[in-house]
Amino acid sequence: MIFHYIAYNTAGEVVKGTLNASNEAAANDLLGYAGYRTISIKSYIPFFSADRFARYFYQIKPSEIILFYRQLALLLESGINIVTSLELLIGQSANGAMKRVLEEVIADLRRGNQLSVAMSKHPEIFSAICCRTLSIGEQTGGLEEMLRQMADYLEKEQEASKSIKSALMYPIIAAIITVVVVGIMVTFVLPAFGDLYGSLGAELPTLTRVVISGSNVIRDNILYILLGSLAVAGFGIIYLKTPDGKYQFDRLMISMPLLGRVNLLNVLSRCCRSIALLFRSGLPLTEIMPLVIQGTSNQVMIKALKDVQQDMLRGHGLSQPMKNSPVFLPMMVQMVKVGEETGNLDATLLSVAQSYETEAEDATRNLIGMIQPAMTLIIAAIVGVIALSLVSAMYSIYGQAF
């Protein structure tokens, strides 16, 4: 990433410039090594840049990154050096953005940088956990094994993400269809029947009067309704961009009925796998926690992990601080305690992750099974009320005429 900085040099003069670093902390470190005192530092992306253009039109999918890790591990095991392996993968890739990133990684390797360092300059593709794990693999000579472990780790993450999307897909589609059908009936069908019934001068049933009156109100104020909806949606999006909005949204996502449990299980399983992966690599918990926090997107989990990290640094271990937070479920806390006592923390956390992933998959299937008939009943009820109001009006007019 490119950062624009303002700093004091050794002579006390204010200097401005840009530098390339993996993240803001790394940029601060580079300035410190150069003898600068930082005043401000901001990420900088030119409005018209090849990187932005490539990322917009050629997004790199998680499946492509997983495949990259597996193929690179296979090539390295075959005895091919890293640069040649990456050049072969560039030739096989059909994604322009991926080719561009790999070319930059090769350029860094030829300057003498390690693979993990070169990959850390692209944090939007290669996470901090990935780069730190690969760095350990480079030091121990087990780079191929670390690449496979990262592929397995990302694969589990992708499966969890797909399960949530599959659970939400049907209700979203059903809701859109319902809105379209009701909108057509309110805009075209009901007004036509209302004019017809009005011309006949018959007394309409209460249900019919309510439905037609509601239709007229919506039709006459459709512009205000649309503008109001857009305004509410706009304010909602702006609020969700704020720290408090993100926190409240993430809190809702793990506390709502039915789906909240699935989200929480997926967040916890990812946390367990991250800690297990890094612990198995040989990192101490003091280094693991910042990486896990950095790799977590749920703001509620981030806050809980930061609290655990602070208590852990005070010498309270890992399980005791987790016990004090309601975010961490009892089974996870108990298994972490067992892992600390036996020295098999990575194995116990992997067991927890597998258990939570299985529970999340079962809960997702049950949720999808419940959502489909529920949405069908809701759609049928809305259309049924409208149809009943029209049919009852016809029978009422027929009765009054004869």
Q: What key phrases describe this protein's structure?
A:
402 residues, mainly alpha, Receptor-associated Protein, 5% strand
Structure description:
The protein has three domains: 2-44; 53-155, Type II secretion system (T2SS), domain F (Receptor-associated Protein, Up-down Bundle); 159-402, Receptor-associated Protein (Up-down Bundle). A three-stranded antiparallel beta sheet has the order 2-1-3, covered by helices on one side. By secondary structure, it is mainly alpha-helical. The protein is built from 17 helices and three strands.
> Which regions are unreliable across 5 or more consecutive residues at pLDDT < 50?
none
Count structural domains: 3
Q: How confident overall, as mean pLDDT?
A: 82
Number of strands: 3
What percentage of residues falls in helices of 4 or more residues? over 70%
How is this structure best summarized?
77% of the residues lie in helices and 5% in strands. The chain has 17 helices and three strands.
Strand and helix map with partners:
Layout: E1 2-8, E2 14-20, H1 24-33, E3 37-43, H2 50-57, H3 62-77, H4 82-92, H5 96-110, H6 115-120, H7 128-140, H8 143-200, H9 206-220, H10 222-241, H11 243-255, H12 259-281, H13 285-294, H14 299-316, H15 319-323, H16 330-342, H17 345-401
Antiparallel strand pairs: 1-2, 1-3
